[in-house]
Fold this protein.
Amino acid sequence: MTDTPVYTLKRTFDAPSALVWRTFTEAELLGEWYGPGVETIIHKLDVRAGGVWLNEMKMGENSFYQRADYTDVTDGKELVWEHATTDADWNVIDNPMAPGWPRILLTTVTLSDANGKTDMVLTWMPLNASDAENEAFRASMEGLDRGWGSGMDILASILARLQAS
């Protein structure tokens, strides 16, 4: 049995944690930064334990669907969700763009105050994955900073804009 790989992204934002929290929990703001470089359509966002986030990323005429089922929400501090690729009816499927990719990933976002700034830690890891799925995830970990990192750069710009208004 292969050890479960864990991707970790740490970022400090020059904004209070309540504002950073909004960028993860308000559909309009989340849609601005999630899925950088594509049109993001949030069909549903119910941020609570047992709630769901239904997300469509449009790339030209093609769409890529994702579902996140929230398992734990600690207001202003932590979000935990199970993240999966779906079909257009929100049924979990194998990722058509990444053969062998884990069907479900556990995502945890933790926010903490840091002298008027916010420290964010995001972890992403396969959940109940096969050895082959763990290895597919491990092999892609180096490239995950591009997608998540680009989104975090946009998120920082959103925070600057919100603080300036």
